[in-house]
Amino acid sequence: MSDYLFNLCTGYVRFKNPIVLAPMAGIVDSAFANQYASNAGLVVLGAFNLDEASIAVASKLAARGRKEFISDEPMELIKKEIRAVTSGSAVAVNVRSTTLEPLIEAAKIVKEEGAILELNAHCRQPEMLEAGIGESLLHDLPRLSAWIRAIKETGVVLSVKVRANVVNDTELARLIDKSGADIIHVDAAMEGFGADLDAILNYRDATRLFLIGNNSVTDFEAAKDMFSRGADMVSVARGVLENPKLIDELVENVTLYQKSIGWYNAPKHVCSEGDFRALAFCCLPVKPCPVHEKFRKLGYTAEEFARTKLEFAKGTMLEYGGDTCFGSLVWCCKITKPCWIRDGVLHTIGLSDVEYMKLKKQLADYVLDHARIPVNESD
């Protein structure tokens, strides 16, 4: 499969598809990744404990039966584990530490190996919270921001693994963005209800950083739900333990979907609570509609929004469509929504569904690029 089917990359890392093996402490090492995630676009190893305090906490957890990765030489273990992944998947390493210095050391090693460092701001066992690691970072945002900035000085591609619904998700996303991280990996946990898809959408509308959605992805329908709320990738963890073929199935299905529509994570329409990218599918703003509230958050007036879309359309195939509702394909909806008028125009001008959606994706980026208020500062 060509890496360019999805064209997913951040920094020096390219992903062959948008399916991720998420970290599970004491479980996801290179051997596990090679066995169950050989087709994944990204495998996240760990979590690994880097300093004496985090190792001591992990040892206590292991003593009561929890699986953990514990090593007297964690840096050597990280290097060895990265090199042992043989699938061609991109590799990330999820790490915990009570102090910054080991994170900097790990970042340098991970960058040399062409991998991603993932800062664990996610684990919530009482012992970890007491030690100041994992989710405790979400309750100390100045420290989290300072650590992100310091780690990024190494040049490593940095992911931050967080848990939704712990603090204000919009504020957290913007802090991670402005601190310089490259990826936000969101466990969209909603106690007793599976994944909180609204949380994924909130992160998407708060930042343009690369976004990985996690929690309760056990089949492609669940993955599509996260993609349509703005996740660039989705990650699976315990679902792989229940279905060892899960990652293969997800990769196969998302590949077929991308080949058929050209934008695998196209958003829901704005009138169906879609994210900012869905402005690419909106009608001319001439009647009361949720589109007005959406584009105003980006600082557009109705006239500016209309002019921006028409500027993009000029010279492209979206300029055609005189018989459509508003005289141009630039105002037409998502290809998965039935419309015989739109489809008739596409057939007449010889524009495939895939090419139409690729243009809509470019339009979405154009609208966001030209917003008066950047996404990470919008209300």
Describe this structure in words.
This is DUS-like FMN-binding domain-containing protein. InterPro entries: Aldolase_TIM, DUS-like_FMN-bd, Methan_mark_9, MJ0144_FMN. Pfam families: Dus (PF01207). It comes from Methanosarcina thermophila CHTI-55. Residues 21-253 form the DUS-like FMN-binding domain. There is one protein chain. By secondary structure, the chain is of the alpha/beta class. It folds into 2 domains: 3-261, Aldolase class I (TIM Barrel, Alpha-Beta Barrel); 270-377, no CATH class. Helices cover 42% and strands 13% of the residues. The protein contains 15 helices and 10 strands. The protein has helices at 30-36, 52-63, 74-84, 100-112, 126-131, 141-152, 169-179, 197-206, 220-227, 238-242, 246-261, 290-297, 302-313, 340-349, 353-369; strands spanning 8-10, 13-15, 19-21, 42-49, 90-96, 116-121, 157-163, 183-187, 210-214, 233-236. Strands 3-4-5-6-7-8-9-10 form an 8-stranded parallel β-barrel, surrounded by 8 helices. Strands 1-2 form a two-stranded antiparallel sheet. Strand 1 (8-10) and strand 2 form a beta hairpin. Helix 3 runs parallel beside helix 4, helix 6 runs parallel beside helix 7 (169-179) and helix 7 (169-179) packs across helix 8. The longest helix has 17 residues, at 353-369. It is elongated. The model has no long low-confidence stretch (mean pLDDT 96).
Number of helices: 15
SSE pattern = EEEHEHHEHEHHEHEHEHEHHHHHH
Q: Considering the protein shown, what is the CATH homologous superfamily of the largest domain?
A: Aldolase class I
Helical/strand content category:
alpha/beta
Helix content: 40-55%
Number of domains: 2
Low-confidence stretches: none
Strand residues, percent = 5-15%
Pfam family, one: Dus
Domain DUS-like FMN-binding: 21-253
Organism: Methanosarcina thermophila CHTI-55
InterPro entries: Aldolase_TIM, DUS-like_FMN-bd, Methan_mark_9, MJ0144_FMN
